[in-house]
Amino acid sequence: MDLLATPGMFALVLGLSVVILLALVFLPHYKADRRFGKNEKDAPVGDERWRRYQENRERNNKQLELDALLEKTARDGLQSLSDSERERMEQLSKELYR
């Protein structure tokens, strides 16, 4: 379909696009990315988001370390762990599952 063959459709689409663009620019209270059913205060912002990210990252690293110790225990037995590894496994278990 040639663009020049349907100038009415082109004008309609262009007009709607301009109206939407102007609404987004001049109506700041309108947000196209608004999450339905959620309050904007619920979303973490700035430092809080970074803090949560760091906490989750630290927790995941501890979980990976504990998983490695548990895998070694399952594979080679509890006696294969050194004293420091046993202490670390107990410490990680308490931190992760308090």
Task: Write up what this structure looks like.
This protein has 98 residues and is mainly α. It folds into two domains: 1-31; 48-98, no CATH class. 66% of the residues lie in helices and 0% in strands. The protein has three helices and no strands. The longest helix has 31 residues, at 46-76. The model has no long low-confidence stretch (mean pLDDT 82).
Descriptors for this entry?
3 helices; mainly alpha; 66% helix; 2 domains; 98 residues
Based on DSSP secondary structure assignment, what is the total number of beta strands? 0
Number of domains: 2
Mean of residue pLDDT? 82
Which percent bin holds the helix content?
A: 55-70%
Please, how many helices? 3
The Rg value, from CA coordinates, equals 28 Å
Largest sheet properties: none
> What structural category arises from helix and sheet content?
mainly alpha
Low-confidence stretches: none
- Helix and strand string, N-terminal first? HHH
